[in-house]
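[job 0412] stage=fold_complex status=start
inputs:
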Amino acid sequence: MQENREIRVIRAGKAGVAVNVLLAAFKAVVGLMSGSIAILMDAVHTLSDALSAVITMAGVWLDGKKKGRGHVFENISAAIVAVMLLSVGIAAGVSAWEKIVAPAELSSYSAIDIVIISVAIVAKLLLGRHYARVGREVGSIALSAAAVESLADSAISAATLVSAGIMLRYGIDLDGYFGMAIAAVVVAAAVKSLWEILGASSKDDAGGVTRHS
Ligand SMILES: [Zn+2]
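[job 0412] stage=fold_complex status=done
writing structure:
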């Protein structure tokens, strides 16, 4: 049962590494070809998501080595992923704020930007839903935190796409306002994840005490 759980989390983590490495490589190639710093930065972020999938797998694997004495390492993995999510939310908020206070500089989107954003929305949505399903079925808080991160990435990309559409159709730049709304949702999700992880770790600690007494 415990074995099976470990295998399933690690399999989901491998899927996460594959999806994020492919997506990061795609963004990096496009970023290098178009010389876009924004796309290259986005590629680095996606690569960090592959790393957080590795951290999730490592946590579950390390817990497996200890043979059923709580999920200490998995809770640490989940906390790292949630802190990464918090930093994504804060970064999105800062860049949105900059766009709101300096509206003279209009956002511009090329056809290739639209393609990248669309691919990212679908890839991150599917990955996030997969993480969430496996996380719920096996009760993995680290996978659930990774699911929130992946879905947040998808939502950020979707908001960018919608505001790009409004920009192209009506010539109004709402990028900053959309970005700010999404950043608030992401920060709230990260805080909620951290809160749940804290609750899970204290439960694990209590469980450990019961087993030892
Ligand atoms: Zn991400």
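[job 0412] summary: Residues 45, 49, 88, 149, 153 surround zinc ion (CB under 6 Å).
[job 0412] exit 0
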